[in-house]
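Researcher: We plan to redesign the surface later, but first we want a full-length starting point. Tokens attached.
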């Protein structure tokens, strides 16, 4: 497992918005929901290849926190990375936590459960 990497202060991740950080050479999109949940996933849109997910629209579908890509508007589950309309497509997700007000990310991909 990769060690935890300090990325930024929690207040630098706006509520219901995303930010991009370079972690161990990879672009990571960080999101914080209104409920205070923190999520980290690859910034790469799997459909276009563009590094844009951090600029997506944060929302929800049912009880699932989501981000809609700004490119083609596909909606991804922030917890699992799955495209909610095509579960065969997904974005890598990473563990994220807050310690002493600092956001930390571990660059080991979380296990993806079958759709």
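Model: Full-length starting sequence:
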């Amino acid at each position: 497992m990769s060690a935890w990497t300090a990325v930024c202060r929690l207040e630098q991740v706006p509520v219901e918005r995303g930010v991009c950080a370079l972690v161990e050479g990879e672009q990571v999109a960080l999101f914080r929901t209104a409920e205070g949940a923190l999520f980290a996933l690859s910034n790469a849109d799997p459909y276009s290849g563009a590094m844009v997910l951090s600029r997506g629209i944060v929302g929800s579908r049912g009880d699932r926190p989501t981000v809609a890509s700004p490119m083609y508007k596909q909606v991804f589950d922030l917890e699992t990375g799955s495209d909610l309309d095509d579960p065969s497509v997904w974005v890598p997700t990473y563990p994220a936590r807050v310690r002493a007000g600092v956001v930390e990310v571990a660059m080991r991909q979380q296990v993806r459960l079958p759709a």
